[in-house]
Amino acid sequence: MGLFDWLSGNNTQEPNEKLIQAEEDAKLAARAEEKKRAAERDPKKEEKKQHKWQNPNEMIKFVCMGGKAICPFSPTPGDVIVTSTQVKLQDKFWATDADRNGASNPNILFKGVCTHPKWGSKQPPCATVIQLGKWENVSETRIDDFHALLRKSTIKCLISNQDIQIIDSGQKAFIEAAEPQTTPPKPAPPGYYYTEKGAFLGKILHHEDVYITDPATFESMKKKQPWSEANVIAFTEKYNLTNTELLDRANWIYAEGGYKIPEYYAYTIENAYNHPNIGNKNEERLYHYQMQSKEPVEVTKTDGTKESKTIHLDKNLYFSGGYTNQTGKAFWSKREDPSQFDADMIDCVRSVIKSKLHPESDPTGGTDSWLGYSSGSHVGIYYIVSRGSRHFFNKSPNKNRTSEEKKYEPKE
After folding, report:
1. How confident is the model at residue 49 (pLDDT cuts 50, 70, 90)?
2. N or C: which end of the chain has fewer CB within 10 A?
3. Which phi and psi (to 5°) does residue 89 adopt?
């Protein structure tokens, strides 16, 4: 008798219990398999799986202190140790491509032994032998002039020539978009800051270097806000003139009574500085040859005899009014705080700056020395009348006298 006959009541004998149980088990197994397949087809579960393993932002996350890295020859992950900067990301030091120290102070610290075959059975602690190459696939974002590391960055261990890979950035959260385009502002270089017009803006820390910039850029520097290097001229670095030397030249112009015709003096001083037989591009030599009597002076020696000699003036004594000429004293008294300079003093500073920045604008015709007289004709190629005196400008090797006046409109 078949199973159908038994189920329909046409049974004349007991059913086969083992056969019934087998069929029930088969049905249960079929239902379980269908549920499993349905679960695998569940779009929500599939989306979660992809999200977990395929986050598109994962590889562009910045790396910070405490990130994790793996090496094919280390049994356990290593810690990323940051020593290159104190700039922080999420309150942890920001990793850069300068973090590549090897043995003794490694920037990737594997705590186990190195299992590379070259060691044989004498496997040393990784931290004592690791040697790191150069980081690859780094960010364009700069931290203290170094490139920031990304989750995708790799570095070769020179022991195995295999890449060490970062598997954990050390961050607490995801970056929502691509890496930022801004960088931390670069610290302002220390020194004295002036405008190209000679106005003193201020100083940052204590340093003799001079920088030329505009007021807005200097304010950004002082407030540690972003600023552009394109707006700053490293004057001392480029022209080899410190703040003291800049003010010496301006003081010299002022002391000569040339503060109404400052550009003629500034360019004449610069020409003398460049002349091989005068300054020869040496500031000390410039003053030695230019601050001396043009003709030998007869002096009485201690024994009562007389001799002719060239007199050299003491630069600082002359600038501060220590000789008969007192004109430079007013400028000297304000040098400690150039913000106290009046308009004429600022114009002297402006002229010195201009003589360096714009040599093509020399109005003198190449003069490299000067003398001042109240009247008459003297050695020179022309003279300019200013403040009641005749300022005779000469160009080496001329020794002829001149009575030619050069007309000059004082700068308002």
Report:
1. very low
2. C
3. -125, 120
pLDDT for the residue numbered 323: 87
pLDDT, position 303:
80
Q: Is 129 helix (H, G, I), strand (E, B) or coil?
A: helix
Average pLDDT, the chain: 86
DSSP secondary structure code for residue 108 in this structure: E
Q: How far is CA 295 from CA 277, 298, 309, 312, 367, in A?
A: 17, 10, 8, 11, 19
Give Cα separations from 42 to 36, 53, 74, 315 (angstroms): 10, 17, 39, 91
3-state secondary structure of 266: helix
Of 258, 282, 286, nearest to 364 by C-alpha is 258
Rounded average pLDDT over 103-131: 93
> Taking a C-beta distance cutoff of 8 angstroms, is the pair 293, 313 a contact?
no
Taking 60 as the threshold, does the pLDDT of residue 105 lie above it? yes
Rounded Cα gap, residues 289 and 402, in angstroms:
23
Domain boundaries, the chain: 59-174, 191-239, 251-402
